[in-house]
Amino acid sequence: MKYVKNIMNNLRSALTTNPAMIIYSVLIAIIAWFIISITVYPTTPKTLSNIPVEVDITGTSAEENGLSVISYETKKVTVTIQGNRSSIGSLSADDLVASAVVENVTSAGEKYLKINVISKKSDVKFDVTSVSPSTMAVMFDKIDTREFELSVEAPNIKAVEGLYMDNGDFKCTPNVIEVSGPSTQLDKIDKAAVIVNNEQELDTAYTFHSSEVVLYDKNESKIDTKNITFNTNDFTIDIPVYMQKKLDLSYDLRYAPANFDADSLSLEMNVNTINVASPNTELEKINTWNIGSIPLYDIDWDFNKSFE
């Protein structure tokens, strides 16, 4: 018994006084753990996060049916794999590829697709035990292009007092736009307009430039232009400003003798004045507007004539 105690004391003394012995002991323990891990537990699980998801329809039923990927919200997934400890130990998220499985997609709409994960390294083998999320919603549709005439909206452009503007006379160049996007979105478009956001009072004709296009449905509600593209975003808008004046209406008598008293006919007009607008300031010099002429020989007791 005394002999055993001496051996234990000597071993304890060696471990506490010999640094080399301590280092060797730690190394031996690590090597022993590694050997046991490889031999007893050759496979191990590993979880990797933030793996980008791809949606490729090349050669799939979606492509054969003329469909395109419009949108999807799942951009990254987390995957748990299991494989040989020495093979997958150094794998990172950059070594894996996650992709949607595009199968039997033959019509437009939102489809829920499985997500597949593989390794970029062909010599690394593993089993996928879980993918989170395991499926993703992908919107498919056919891409189409259609033409729409453009109107102009300039809600903050006014004419100065005494002058006049007519929204129907606003001119946009180009006046037609090509709109490309998913067919289901294009089906909702009722009209397209170019917006002038300037705030200004005009006393003469003016030209504006704009790049903003708004699409409306039949209920006058704005349509979301996400996933929609236009063939141009450079527009010139010409806004004319008119002088406005009230003019007396007049007419001429043809084939009347000299010094004939026209008032003796007692002809009456149902409209005596007209409002006229013109971009030309020559309107200032005009006080009457002649509606045409009446041959004297046409006038009888029940004479009546309409003028444009």
Walkthrough of the structure:
- There is one protein chain.
- The chain is α+β, with helices and mostly antiparallel strands and 308 residues long.
- It folds into 3 domains: 42-141, Beta Complex (RNA Polymerase Alpha Subunit, Chain A, domain 2), CATH 2.170.120.30; 143-240, Beta Complex (RNA Polymerase Alpha Subunit, Chain A, domain 2); 243-298, no CATH class.
- It contains 5 helices and 21 strands.
Summarize the entry for a quick read:
With 308 residues, this protein is α+β, with helices and mostly antiparallel strands. It has helices at 2-17, 19-40, 61-64, 85-88, 183-186, and strands spanning 43-54, 68-72, 76-84, 96-100, 109-119, 127-132, 135-141, 143-153, 157-159, 163-164, 171-173, 176-182, 191-195, 200-202, 206-210, 213-216, 229-230, 235-239, 242-254, 273-278, 288-295.
Helix content: 10-25%
Largest sheet: 7 strands, mixed
**CATH fold-level name of the largest domain:** RNA Polymerase Alpha Subunit, Chain A, domain 2
Strand residues, percent: 35-45%
Number of domain modules: 3
* Number of helical stretches of at least 4 residues: 5
Number of strands: 21
Judging by the overall fold, what is the CATH architecture of the largest domain?
Beta Complex
